[in-house]
Protein: Dipeptidase
Amino acid sequence: MSEKALQYIRDNRDRLLEKLNDFLSIPSVSTDRKHKADVSNAADFVVTYLNDIGFENVEKQETNGHPLVYGEYNGAGPDAPTVLFYGHYDVQPADPIDLWDSDPFMPEVRNGRLFARGSSDDKGQVFMHLAVFEAYMKTEGNIPINVKVCIEGEEEIGSENLYDILHEKKEQFQADFAVISDSGMAAKNQPTILYGLKGFTGIEITVTGPDHDLHSGMYGGAVRNPIVALSHILASMKDENEVVTVDGFYEDVEPLNDEERKLMEQAPGEDFLETTGISETVSEKGYTAKEHTMGRPTFEINGIYGGYQGEGTKTIIPSSATAKITCRLVPGQDPTKIQQLLEMHVNKVAPSGVTVEVKKEKLSAKAYKVEPTHPLIKKAAISYTKAFGKETVYLRMGGSIPVVEWIEAIYDMPIVLLGFGTPDDRLHSPNESFPLDSFDKGMETLVYYWDEIKK
Amino acid sequence: MSEKALQYIRDNRDRLLEKLNDFLSIPSVSTDRKHKADVSNAADFVVTYLNDIGFENVEKQETNGHPLVYGEYNGAGPDAPTVLFYGHYDVQPADPIDLWDSDPFMPEVRNGRLFARGSSDDKGQVFMHLAVFEAYMKTEGNIPINVKVCIEGEEEIGSENLYDILHEKKEQFQADFAVISDSGMAAKNQPTILYGLKGFTGIEITVTGPDHDLHSGMYGGAVRNPIVALSHILASMKDENEVVTVDGFYEDVEPLNDEERKLMEQAPGEDFLETTGISETVSEKGYTAKEHTMGRPTFEINGIYGGYQGEGTKTIIPSSATAKITCRLVPGQDPTKIQQLLEMHVNKVAPSGVTVEVKKEKLSAKAYKVEPTHPLIKKAAISYTKAFGKETVYLRMGGSIPVVEWIEAIYDMPIVLLGFGTPDDRLHSPNESFPLDSFDKGMETLVYYWDEIKK
Structure:
């Protein structure tokens, strides 16, 4: 059944690419007030496309910010599964414009790549889904599954209104599973299943001593130095083996099994030394850097400040010092419990003579993970391999995608991340691009996938 | 012989106070370009005064900044000792002006105190010396000792040119001992000998990891966090008992003997809790807060920074982190050796995966100490007690006065600190004032002192 749709994509490839270029030419920069009309125009593009294909109940839902586009296809009938497809049509600003080799909003193909802001993140990948729906409709007159489309316009500014909308429209958006194509593959033409993302939480520690900065000559020897105190607290939280030394931190961690560790070791990854300039990697004792980044929780101090930061010397005992800490969590760990453990630890080790305040980060999230053996995942791997002609690799990533956590928390349904970007796409940077290979084979993957799902 | 001079001071008290007011009315703010002419006028005031008294070789020595006033009295003859008297005629800015209860440059007496910028620091105390020289000259026709006067106009901006001048004019300025009146007493009307000041040195530690800030999700677990590494380094340098844990740090420290510890405990001091707002004092294990501030070396982190310091959260592994450290040193300790020990320690404990750079502070100084039993000190104590009618207390202070270290290092002569300020003088702050008691009894002390020295 998929053959006709595949053929349609091949036959219409130039026209589809041109149509994508129209989409990419709209500077839908959500963070910039000047582009408010452009953002709205990009929403209209999606609305028109969905209507043209034959979707129902297509709406441009207004929010407090930029609109969200919704549409449904119910033609597969009540017995077929329904997928919620999420994506975003807004883009990052193009600045610094000077560093672009071609206009960010005049798409240009060079060296097998399509250069334009949004080509990879996420307009290009959203468009591929729409084109595949079109292919099915034009050739078969139907799509193998029911679809609910949710394409927002505020992803690049933190999805400010989406969280509330997902709650409010729960009935409307509910589906059997969700598909998101806003991520990448381990390497170009390397089919990749991203089956895990980390959760996230954080605290801020402020140590306060004297009520004003003190002369170190007059008071040094009588007053606890808040920076020294903070150093002791921080040093007690992670040791030189990169092991977090906070009681209970690892208690609920789902251990990595041998299968997963093998997957992680086999996964293609970047050369950390080359991309970061460090002299050697370090990772939790007993785990490789790959295992730690992908599958073990992390503890990072993201920022620290206190006292004098200018040129030269100022001989003070500062009044206070602050450190910002975030942790990436793995399946099993509860962000609220982790925050409590961190706070208890800080209070336990806090020295006398200073007051220590712990502020808890509001935005916390559990880790996301779907079993690599889940049928929805197996089918994705099969589809990838058919399209790219290569074995699919399985990755867990150290990052977090808020919308994934939200959909999982609110809808309690499996989420499949079907990403086609590559590490060289330069998301958020000048000269963003997307490989035409990913465009072509990605659409093929989607054709196979809906076909597999239907089976 | 001192009786006549004492009587002269009493008889001329109102006129002298009026003359001091003329001196204080000149806004000789050295840091403010707008006051350049005023600073020069204040120098002229000193020049005129010295000439009027009958000093020889009086000069206004131009420097790259503000002038230095020099003058000599050689009338005591070649067998009498020569004192180098140092002081400064420049003052701190008066800002914030609104917080003054009277014009900072229109001296006003309230509640037994003379309110004016510079009344205590240091014009008032310089004037007292000049008035005492006048008293001797007008009554006896001579001063009991030979005098070299060095009054600079850049103390409040770091004595930028003085260090070079002290080297260049070594022959001209050489004396048997030096007297400086730019400090205070432990309490009002409490004769105090400041017989020790701490030395000073410092280092700056910068830990560098990746060559740019990294996404904590992508790299957390593979890259050493520079702030975590810095925390470990810092925490290893001073423990919770306020003991510096750097090998050799205490090696050359002259131990405090029982006599000194008794002096320190008896010395009146401020209420640390009240003036700093801390809940309890902390000090080196085995020493009281007074002993530590006055007589034991200190280690302070004056500032720290690295990574994200803004509102909320930024999930990065920062590229680098920096801490500024200074130590106050006691007699026996060599600043250069201490810097080396600190550097060796840092290099020893530096973890892998980051580079650690230690920058050494250029301005280092040994501690200053004169034996309380030194004849010049004994005589000072006797003079204080005669004037104030109270036993003299002996203090070592945690602070450093650069010019004291310089004179000691360049001229190798004893230095006597004859201070008459009080803890309530509000130096550098609005409503600076000087007790009239200190003015009257301080001049008496000086009359007695030159008389004692002559004996």
Remarks:
- The mean pLDDT of chain B is 95.
- Residues 199-261+282-360 of chain B form a domain with the Alpha-Beta Plaits fold (CATH 3.30.70.360).
- The first helix of chain B runs from residue 2 to 11.
- Chain B touches chain A through 81 residues (CB under 8 Å).
